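Study this:
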Amino acid sequence: MKQEFNSKFIWNICLVAAMGGLLFGYDWVVIGGAKPFYEAFFGLSGDANAWKSGWAMSSALAGCLGGALLSGAITDRIGRKKVLIIAAVLFTASAIWTALSQTFNGFIVARILGGIGIGLASNVSPMYIAEVSPSKMRGTFVSVNQLTIVIGVLAAQIVNLVISRVNTLPDNATAEMILDSWNGQVGWRWMFAAETIPAGLFFLLALIIPESPRWLLKKGRTEAARNVLAKIGGADYADAEVADIQSTVEGEVGKVAYKDLLSPKVLKILGLGIFIAVFQQWCGINVIFNYAQEIFEAAGYDVNAMMFGIVITGIVNLVFTFVAILTVDKWGRRPLMLLGSGGLAVTYAILGACYYFGLQGVVVIAVVMVAIACYAMTLAPITWVLLSEIFPNRIRGTAMSLCVSALWIACFALTVTFKPINVALQAHGTFWLYGAICLIGFLVLYYRTPETKGKSLEAIEREIAD
């Protein structure tokens, strides 16, 4: 007999959790569009203030790492739902504080708060979705979290574009001209303030979603867990799931088994999770986004057209994330990860050749769009799917926290090493280097990555532990 699920209920609670992803994407990208304007306001222009400018852009990263580490300390203790609520509060406070900032130090503190929210949401949103989703649909629902991240990125790009055009500046505008403009005084504030709308909605909706049934069972709250599972798939489904989940958390009620992270079997899984998380950053897609401005300028676009072109990259990112959602539970996780790593290796080889032989314009832009599409339908969403699936119930929160922390450390390392690498190797060498990293990633994923499609989290735990 075919199992029937309450799709409306599952979609509702998963979309609420995925709003953490949307705010993650918006908060991460909005600062790029606001940069010329808040820099003029805080007097960050010029080489003498380069370190302040860099700190303003990267301060959220410090918060991301702190949030990811904090999530490991509290997610298995207080539950997934409460951490989502805390993240929503931090997003809201950060948006308001940033928009009202009158001093540079206040601006930095506000950005760090937002970064903590990102660190919490990037860990807990996919975890919560994985724990409430039925096995056959789990890949789709967790991939929706990546979709909302991309929507958040695109929303920030569009909001930045619309607000910046309220008071269009000439292409050669000086810092003084920007400071005296509406954008330099007010416009950039609205770019950040716009986040309060989805952040406030996220807070209100997070209050009414249920707690993860797997966390409830880990805490010995069997009836509460059964009620949530019954809403998802009915009484028989709830009884079967409760029995299966309890078999993996037996004797672990109320405990966070940190020592289990050091056991050989778990350490092996943790090592794979950290590799996958780091590889998602070091696959080199951020090199593409770092080069976006230069690529569009080389193709003959002016500043205003360039901003519109960058929005187009966001649309490509969005469209191909839908491809991932439609294929992850059909093709499986492993084939998509291999497609992404192998596809990017080939794409970077071509991009490096374009730069080496001096090709520019439409050809390079087309290859860039292929790279973004390849990443969007593979490594971007599937990394989060795998990280939310491969760890045992009793330590999932802690293990995911370590992996997400590694991801943000890798992101920071990529950011600070990009310029020196680019100077040493030039554009073509930089792309070829990341192509080589993708080839190494392909080989590791080929030999180490399990297929988790269609399996319950408990079945995956037993299979990997064998």
Q: What stands out?
A: Residues 396-448 form the longest helix (53 residues). The chain has one domain: 7-465. The mean pLDDT is 86. The radius of gyration is 22 Å.
